[in-house]
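Exercise (ungraded).
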Amino acid sequence: MNEKKEKKVYESIEERMREEGISRGAIATESLRKTYRKKIWTKFVKAIKDFDLVEDGDKIAVGVSGGKDSLLLCKLFQELAKDRTRKFEVAFISMNPGFEAMDMEQFKRNLEELDIPCEVFEANVWEVAFKEDPEKPCFLCAKMRRGVLYNKVEELGYNKLALGHHFDDVVETALINQFYAGTVKTMIPKVKSTSGKMELIRPLIYVKEEDIINYTKRNGIVAMACGCPIESGKVDSKRREIKNLLAELTKVNPNIKQSIFNSLKNINLDYVMGYTRGNKRDVAKDGNENK
Ligand SMILES: Nc1ncnc2c1ncn2[C@@H]1O[C@H](COP(=O)(O)OP(=O)(O)OP(=O)(O)O)[C@@H](O)[C@H]1O
């Protein structure tokens, strides 16, 4: 969708909102049930079923960054909560890592327009990370964001935190780890937090980023970017490099991302030279760890 078309879509949604007296949130929900039923809704429900992500009695916090992925996740959980056979509670929680005031206004406007009641708490993460490591604040920033968010969610008494990581995140993370960390691992749909008090769940694991981008544009949702210079593309990052590489490879083999994703579910332990499970490391008999 080019800029001109995007503007048109935005205007037609505004018109519908005025004429029918409905909110952008209602339009976004309808879109999940109709246009994006197959590409988003069904995949979300499948992940929940495949990995038991939502169980009776759960108190789930959805982590809201204001970006396209977590905004979509909120709308999906609101829909899921309408299914009375599932007995779970859901709430929407956001940590403000130090957004500019203007961004914060846009963030709140988005939530309001999309009918997402969200609790926002303040944290000084960006400033601390940039001060500590002005050249490469990403690692520290991400680590601190995770730490502060997880602690808060645990403190509030939730047993699960839902994150907006999707299919492409899984594939890209696997390649980043393989290319730069010399290990085969990625984000998984359900994992205990470090403290062991809560589980992290990733219900968008089957949903493709391309479909999230299209959904966001088609519904006139102005999602926010992370806001830091690295994410907004001024400085290169490994994820961007891998994204570009995958885009190139996809031209030759359109199924490449799906194949990488499948490979992460089909690891044949008889044909790997070594693996780790918990604290235990196992190496093939004639393998040499030092090589
Ligand atoms: N400040 C925050 N407050 C609450 N949850 C957050 C925050 N930042 C990130 N998250 C959660 O962690 C997930 C992954 O964060 P990351 O920064 O990698 O975002 P992303 O891949 O750009 O996704 P999004 O489009 O939702 O921002 C988000 O989808 C969201 O669920």
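Further reading is listed at the end of the chapter. For now, observe: The radius of gyration is 20 Å. The chain has one domain: 3-265.
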